[in-house]
Amino acid sequence: MIQIIDIYRSFGRQQVLRGISLRVPEGAIMAVIGRSGSGKTVLLKILIGLLRPDSGQVLIEGTDITQLSGRRLDEIRERVGMLFQGGALFDSMTVVENIAFSLREKTKLAPEEITGKVERMLASVGLADMGYKYPAELSGGMKKRAALARTLITGPSIVLFDEPTTGLDPILVHATHQLILD
After folding, report:
1. What pLDDT is stored for residue 125 in this prediction?
2. Which residues share a beta bridge with 31?
3. Which of 79, 86, 110, 118 ranks highest by number of CB atoms within 10 Å?
4. d(CA 50, CA 53)
5. Are 35 and 79 in contact (CB under 8 A)?
6. Under DSSP, is residue 65 helix (H, G, I), strand (E, B) or coil?
7. Rounded to whole angstroms, how far apart are CA atoms 157 and 81?
8. Confidence band (pLDDT; 50, 70, 90) for 90?
9. Long-range contacts of 132-137 (CB under 8 A, 24+ apart)
10. Residue 169 in 3-state DSSP?
11. What is the mean pLDDT of residues 5-20?
12. What is the structure's pLDDT at 85?
């Protein structure tokens, strides 16, 4: 479960979040909708500890992450997948290398197991034949799907999406929604 309690966040004199509170029960899907610049991305970054709130609490599975740093914060982050708005793919790695990155860094899976997981994930996002390409060789929608595959490959217990369907055609929007539901 995620609980946000009275979160405030400003950047200089620009107040972005003003007393945000919400509760997301385990297994729930929640969407935060708002205008551009209204603080949605800031809220997501606070949820994974990339930004600290000026005040308030963020409880993830009962632990206030606003009080954590170092290894303790990393332990929480390992259970959270984040699809960033721009994808945040590594330009110097192929799509396969991008998706396999966290499996290679954080697990003890054999190389053939990693390859199999990556191939299945590529197929599930409609990129089965694109693994050899670099991000610069992909369309915007393909980059988004590659980033989605990288986010989901470790099977995180909590997944945060920052505009997961922006730039996708209607068929892929539906497929992406289905992946989120699954």
Report:
1. 86
2. none
3. 118
4. 10
5. no
6. helix
7. 8
8. very high
9. 132/94, 132/95, 132/96, 133/94, 133/95, 134/91, 134/92, 134/93, 134/94, 134/95, 135/87, 135/89, 135/90, 135/91, 135/95, 135/98, 136/91
10. coil
11. 95
12. 79
CB within 8 Å of 171: residues ≥ 6 apart: none
Average pLDDT over the chain, rounded to whole?
90
Q: How many residues does the structure list for the chain?
A: 182
Query: To which H or E segment does residue 2 belong?
Result: strand 2-11
3-class SS shares of the chain: helix, strand, coil, % to 5: 40, 20, 40
Residue with tokens 């969407």: 31
Global pTM reads 0.81
Provide, rounded to the nearest whole percent, the portion of the chain with pLDDT above 70: 100
Instruction: Round to whole Å and give the CA distance between 135 and 132.
Output: 10
87-124 burial: b if 16+ Cβ within 10 Å, else e: bebeeeebbbbbbbbbbeeeeeeeeeebeebbeebbeb
What is the band of 27 on the pLDDT scale with cuts at 50, 70, 90?
confident
Up-side HSE of residue 42: CA atoms within 13 Å toward CB? 20
CA 101 – CA 122 distance, rounded (Å)? 14
